[in-house]
Amino acid sequence: MKNRKHHRETAVFVGFPIILLCRRRSNIFQLVPFFTALSVIVLILFVLMSYIAPPIDSRHDQFISLFYNGTEPRRNLLEEQVIQEPMGEGRLSRDIWNSKKSNFYHGCSIASDEFPTAEVNTLPNRYLLIATSGGLNQQRTGIIDAVVAAHILNAVLVIPKLDQQSYWKDSSNFSEIFDVNWFISYLSKDVKIIKDLPRMGNELIIPHTTRVPRKCNAECYQTRIQPILNKKHAVQLTKFDYRLSNHLDTELQKLRCRVNYHALKFTDPIIEMGRKLVERIRKKSQHFLALHLRFESDMLAFSGCYYGGGDEERRELGKIRKRWKTLRVTNPDKERKNGKCPLTPEEVGLMLRALGFGKDVHIYIASGEIYGGEKTLAPLKAFFPNFYTKETLASKEELAPFSSFSSRMAALDFIVCDESDVFVSNNNGNMARMLAGRRRYFGHKPTIRPNAKKLYKMFTDRNNMTWEEFSSHVQKQQIGFMGDPMEVKPGRGEFHENPSACICEDTNVKDRKDVTIPRSPAMIFGEGTDSADDGTRKSFGEVIDRRIIEDEQYWFDTDYMENEVGGIQSIGGATISLRELNI
After folding, report:
1. 324 and 167 in contact (C-beta within 8 Å)?
2. pLDDT value, residue 369
3. Which of 173, 259, 248 is nearest to 437 (CA)?
4. Fewer CB within 10 Å, N side or C side of the chain?
5. Nearest to 52 by CA among 86, 77, 78, 79
6. Model confidence pLDDT, tens digit, residues 318-332
């Protein structure tokens, strides 16, 4: 009311002297009707403006108040006009639910005629066993690379053994997570796979146990492991995660894709429950966004970041951090400036609103127990009230077969995130990278990764800009982090995140804007047929540049650790660095 009164008084103040001036000067008396009409128009405009929008300074103050420093959310402000996207601003000049030019690219991983089949490639009495390491998606990388390693070594692969001793203490075996028969059958032309190590005559084969360096290439395997296979007949490789080079020839990279995107299919119970979760969200909204929040206490402790919780936070996270005795001491401020810290739930919400996702967007959260609980989540829920998790979409009885097994619960999150219209990661860990690569392969569905290093400055300077300015800056800084085709140069980054050798360009649709590449339900869960190379596609993985430097911006993620309580192990008496662990 004060604003409206101010505008009316201003109009009268401007209009009334003009009328008096006209009356006192007879030579311009004939202009009195003109100035009277002008004054009325100005008065009407000021009154209308007071009803349409608050003053700019008022909106700016409300925007600043959103970035509160206290611990309790200020819900009243979140419900006011400022929290909505500004009229005509703060929106992307694109469809937020689709990637640019995604119709021109899709996955292609069929082997060429030159690639030797399993029948030709496999030598007798050679068996490769592997023991995976870490959580579900870290183990997935090991399984994928084990198939390729077996092909390199001309060996039979024994179904991989999953990690049951790490931090997560999940007792699940391979066949309880993945469809083992489908896995063996689908890859039968590439690598011979068996469920158990056979006997040689009447004797058990005792495998020789060893470990290969990280990022070991084909020549490395042939030099280090083949002589042992020739002598011992069976070799078991332990801690098998990221033990194969990022840079292989195109045929081996395509084998990786056949394993990852087609052969590894979850078991029927996991698929069925995952589909139920997706269907229940779809009944509520045509589109939905999935967020891998990764704001659990172990993640924050391992990162060494600080979030303003005082001595209590330092004590709680410091106690967890002691599990990894050889972690270097970090400077929290420096880590945050370098983009090494996960965004808070509030910051993620602000980023998404700035990118154009409105309050009516339905959002699924893939996460464990959030550090700080509901108090930490409150700002994100205020931004997006249509907020779901596995637990809100399914009953305890429905989740009972999965809830005691971290890998099975992670598999459900994986399915929902993969099926989402937009996937958002809050770190660059295993699940985020696996999903980013998969979504590129199956049609380039939008996959947003916060440009944390640049966004840090936006959040630091937030009190010095309007919502329109903040939104514009966020959109600018997120260019190249939205999951569009060709955002990442071929050969850059980790292969499972950027499977460039398996992404082909459809030259036939260059001039056809109405073409869409569907993702069949069968392919989503690991089945389906692959597209053959027919001369109309250009692969982006044909040239392998071995001089390419590995992407240095790996995020901290406990999935990458040598996951043993008691610390990261040392090799040869030397502490393993974070870089060597691909953290």
Report:
1. no
2. 84
3. 259
4. N
5. 86
6. 888 887 777 778 888
**In this structure, are residues 430 and 406 in contact, taking their beta carbons and an 8 Å threshold?**
no
Q: Assess contact for 124 and 501: CB atoms under 8 A.
A: no
Asked whether the beta carbons of 81 and 55 are under 8 A apart, the reply is no
Which pLDDT score, from 0 to 100, does residue 81 have?
Answer: 30
Smallest CA-to-CA distance from 578 within 545, 554, 542 is with 554
Q: pTM to 2 decimals?
A: 0.76
346: Cα separation from own chain's centroid: 17
- Cα–Cα separations (whole angstroms), residue 565 to 324, 562, 583: 7, 9, 17
Helices and strands per DSSP (H, E), number in the chain: 24, 17
Here the tokens at position 139 are 């183990």
How confident is the model over 382-421, as pLDDT tens digits? 999 999 999 999 999 999 999 999 999 999 999 999 999 9
Hey, what amino acid is at 255?
Answer: L
pLDDT, tens digit (0-9, with 9 covering 90-100), for 518-533: 443 433 444 444 443 4
Amino acid at 219: E
Largest CA distance in the chain: 126
- Apex CA 489: angle with CA 486 and CA 490, to 5°? 95
Cβ(131)–Cβ(240) below 8 Å: yes
pLDDT of residue 445: 92
Low-confidence ranges of the chain (pLDDT < 50): 1-26, 28-29, 50-90, 511-583
Question: d(Cα 498, Cα 240) in Å, to the nearest integer?
Answer: 21
State the virtual CA torsion across 391, 294, 561, 482 in degrees, nearest 10. Answer: 120
- DSSP letters, 353-372, are HHTT--TT-EEEEE-SSBTT
DSSP, collapsed to helix, strand or coil, labels residue 174 as: helix
- Give Cβ neighbours of residue 376 (< 8 Å, ≥ 6 apart): 295, 344, 345, 370
**CA-based angle 42:47:50, to the nearest 5?**
125
pLDDT score for 31 = 54
Task: Report the DSSP beta bridge partners of residue 365.
Answer: 291
Tokens of 543: 């040239």
- Three-class secondary structure of residue 561 per DSSP: coil
Q: What angle do CA 540, 436, 250 make, to 5 degrees?
A: 30
Residue 535 DSSP one-character state = S
Q: What is the rounded radius of gyration, in angstroms, for the C-alpha atoms of the chain?
A: 29
Could you give the CA distance from residue 391 to residue 384 in angstroms, rounded to a whole number?
17
555: β partners: none
Q: Kindly give, in sequence order, each residue whose CB lies less than 8 Å from that of residue 94, ignoring residues fewer than 6 positions away.
A: 100
Residue 464 burial (CB < 10 Å; 0-12/13-18/19+)? exposed
State the Cα torsion 486-488-494-498 to the nearest 10°.
Answer: -10
In angstroms, the CA 407 to CA 34 distance is 78
Q: Which of 205, 212, 376, 198 is nearest to 294 (CA)?
A: 376
